[in-house]
Amino acid sequence: MTDIELDESVGAVLAAYHRFRDADSAMALRIRSETGMSDNEIAIIRYLLRERSDEHEVMPSQISRHLGISSASTTALIDRLERAGMVERVSHPTDRRSILVAATDLAAERIASTHDAFEQRLLDLTSNLGDVERHDVIAYLTALAEAADATATGPRR
Question: Thinking of the domain 36-153, which architecture would CATH place it in?
Fold first, then answer.
């Protein structure tokens, strides 16, 4: 591969990445518009649904840690989601001082109706990759995530 071809292929990868980021942002905007929820509210619902599918109970402090936000912000978000019928607070079965937060069926329907179509397309695309292609995609996305994490959490090196 010549330097010009390499430059063009690197440019094509970067262009595809930026196209994906734009499409992902547009999808997130559509989900927010269709559900009437903020990014953090959607993140809470998705987290609660994931934990429910793993049969884990969730306390508000776990939501705070997951989102990296204060307990006051978490309480405000849970209050809003509870008023909208998206979550419910339930008593902890063994600790009377604690409460648990669970997504409602309405929340599952709202998120599923806007998110499941993309997840199915993602599964279909991934299933059509060969083993070597999957390995390359995993390696690239892992390195990309690590680069984003390093940029977000520390000084530039």
Answer: Orthogonal Bundle (1.10)
